[in-house]
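user: Please review this fold.
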Amino acid sequence: MFVPIRYVFSVFLALAATAPTAQAAPVATTNSAIVAVVNDEAITSYDLNARIQFVLATTKISSSPESIARLKPQILRALVDERLQLQEARKNDIELTDKEVEQAIVAIESQRSMEPGEIGRILATNRIPEETLMVQIRAQIVWGKLVQRKLRSRIKITDEEVTQMARKLAAPVIRQELKIALLQLPVDKPSRDKEVRQAAEKIVLESRGGADFEELARQFAGGAVRDGGNLTAFWVRPDDLDPSIAKALTGAKPGSISDPLRNSIGYTLIKVYDARDLPGQTPTGTEITMREISLKLRSSADSKEMEALKTIAEEIEKTPGSCDDKDIGEVSGGSVASIAVEKTTAMLADLPAALRVIADGMKVGDISSPLLNDDGVKLYMLCGKREGVNAPVDNERARAVVYQQRIELEAQKYMRNLRRDAFIEIRG
């Protein structure tokens, strides 16, 4: 298993398969209104509107005025958090390379089964500034590095925690299927949104009070009901549905009816008729093999020696050798550091977030940029990738999963403290 070099990387993207019709782009002006101040930096209405357009272009969220009004506070909070993360990273001299940003974008496109460069095309089609995405990615990468550098030493894991996690990982995954029917109430023009929403709420209220859901559907939905005037029920796994629908079905029992769900067409109501558990399945995933090159500093090293180590790492990045090499040829750490090369195999999903993003954005034979940690510098070379592999269960894997969960909790605390100690003024 890899020596943990991790950071929290949760890109705020739920990219659609195709970009929607271009929307009006935010106009940059020299007198854009200030919507928030974070310490000594301003967030403008241009920044906020550009991010809103980005979210609308890359998700299935409705672009109605009501949806945008609900989105604004959440997006503004995300922008504030990103400023705090970038500011904290600067204070701690956290570095970022263009290569790391490029690998992150490749990873996003790979995860979404997109063609190379498709994110850029979505931005261009919708006339969204590229910087809108770049700021988000840069903030998340440097924040992850900062979390790794400052919080890793706080994580203490007991043998009991490892044993419990190993048992959990070994248990077959039980997937649930639900028999549901969807009632779609379309909104044909914005002025009818309130009317349709009230109709949807009326159906839910009456049905939960004992009224016949199917009869109400016929009365309110009209032509939306098909199949001889009956709703068509079907079996489906919640995790195969749109995330917003899957979330609404969490914990749903037979007979339950969802709250109205807004989407690009209108409002959707879901009735659950039945539920069943599928046989337990052994988890599968992507297995990767990496060549790990570690440059470890002496415990008494000073800042000059650290700079020398970075120079050595950059030299290795240019001529790393092949995956079969057990050393790095003529490159030497000299008196500055010791250099070790190790080949390791792990499941992609179990990797620290930093390595997961790097590995997912690399082709076999690629090498990462030098990654700094408490001990020195590491580089990772992708040597192999296999899909559909049964994930092994052992204490090493269990310990890595526990570590990942714990450091993410520490990162959340760190972020809360930054918000508490910062000067944040929300305007308008």
Summary: Residues 22 and 125 are 6 Å apart (CA to CA). The first strand starts at residue 34 and ends at 38.
